[in-house]
Amino acid sequence: MNGRQRRGLILLLVSVVLALVAFGGVYAVIQDVESKVGPETTAYEVAEDIEPYQPLNADQFREVRIPERYVPESAVTDLDDLDGKVAVGPLAPGSLLQRDMISDRPELGSGQQEIAIMIDASTGVAGKIYPGATINMYAAYRAEDSDATDSGELEVVRLMVNNAQVIDVGDLTEIEGDRERVEAVPITFALENVDAQRVTFAEAFAEQIRLALVAPGDDTEIPEEERTYTIVGDVLGSPHADIVQPGAN
Questions:
Q1: Residue 14 domain-assigned?
Q2: Which region holds residue 53: left if phi is over 0, alpha if psi is between -120 and 50, else beta?
Q3: Is the pLDDT of residue 242 over 60?
């Protein structure tokens, strides 16, 4: 072997050694990253805009692989968990799906029945009533009373139902009003028999119905003596007048 061949062999060996060193460095970096990141797991992110309180299905989400150490404990890792669930707020595409974003769809309790009525969208809903919400329903009437006004009518506001559970909110619909077409929303409630009768009465005879959203967790029972209001009673210092109360037992 002459000198030129020996130099070529030495250069070849040096190149091999440098390549091995480089490979070892890259491998070490990969191992270091993997040791810090750890194994991956399956999670799901929102694939489209989802409106609040709408039923959820698997097509609205896409699977993603995320290192376990970066996945919060509340993350949904099985789409079967969506059965019977609704979104508790608006969900934006790209958001990691977590259990605090969803809740059970409201269901009927023992002795309850579903009853749906149309509620004026401008005066009765204001976009804030949702499935699972608790509401108080108020109805305004004109009741006969010879001492009330020249026309013999007394304006009365009555609390028809206290702490009613909303189980569904329908789509905005145009209906025929007294003088013009108005926008209304079908609201479905879970009510016991007497309350269902009161709601039906209010829908049939009330001048106007309003829903008042009750704060979550507040189940205050309004006393019977505070469930009816009249302007005459207010002027006289006792707004909860002792009159015949529409819808009362």
A1: no
A2: left
A3: no
